[in-house]
Specification:
The structure is a single chain. The protein has three helices and seven strands, in the order ααββββββαβ. The strands form two sheets. The chain has a four-stranded mixed beta sheet, with helices on one face. It has a three-stranded mixed beta sheet with strand order 3-7-6, with no helix packed on it.
Length: 139
C-alpha cells in the first residue's frame, strides 16, 4: 500500500525525516560505547584507567565524548580508534597548529593551562562530517 506523503500530518512526516533528540543521544551513546570497546581491544584496558590524562576517542567521524569538562592543568589525549581512517586535532580557539594525521592507535595530547571553553575539530572531517568537540576548562 502506498501513502501520499502530502496527506500525512506534518508531525508524522517530520518523524520520518528527523531523529528526535533522545534518539540522536542514544545513537551517540551507542557509538561512543563501541569506540570504548575498540579502545579496550587495542590497549587492553578502559580509557578511564589511563593515568594523568583524560581520553577522547576518535571513531566513525565523531569525538567520544563530544564535550568534556576538565580542571586547568589537565592533559587531554585524543586517540584514533578507527580501523582505517586518519584524523587530526585542531584547537581552533587557541590558535594551535593542526596535529599530525593520527592513524589507528595513534594519539595527540594537549595540556590546558587556562580556563574557558575550547572548541576543537578534526581537520579533514569537520566540514563534511561535522567532527567537532568542546573542552570546558574550569578553575
Amino acid at each position: 500500500m502506498f501513502v501520499k506523503m502530502s496527506r500525512l500530518p506534518f508531525a508524522v512526516l517530520a518523524s520520518f525525516l528527523f531523529l528526535s533528540p533522545a534518539a540522536a543521544e542514544d545513537d551517540n551513546a551507542a557509538l561512543c560505547a563501541e569506540a570504548e570497546e575498540r579502545y579496550v581491544d587495542m590497549f587492553g584496558h578502559p580509557s578511564a584507567d589511563e593515568d594523568g590524562v583524560t581520553v577522547v576517542t576518535m571513531y566513525k567521524y565523531r569525538f567520544c565524548p563530544e564535550e568534556i569538562s576538565v580542571p586547568v592543568g589537565t592533559t587531554v589525549r585524543w586517540v584514533n580508534v578507527d580501523k582505517r581512517t586518519s584524523h587530526s586535532v585542531i584547537l581552533k580557539d587557541l590558535g594551535e597548529p593542526e596535529s599530525d594525521r593520527l592513524f589507528p592507535e595513534e594519539a595527540f595530547e594537549f595540556t590546558f593551562l587556562s580556563a574557558g571553553e575550547q572548541n576543537y575539530l578534526c581537520g579533514p572531517h569537520w566540514e563534511t562530517q561535522e567532527m567537532i568537540g568542546r573542552v570546558t576548562v574550569t578553575d
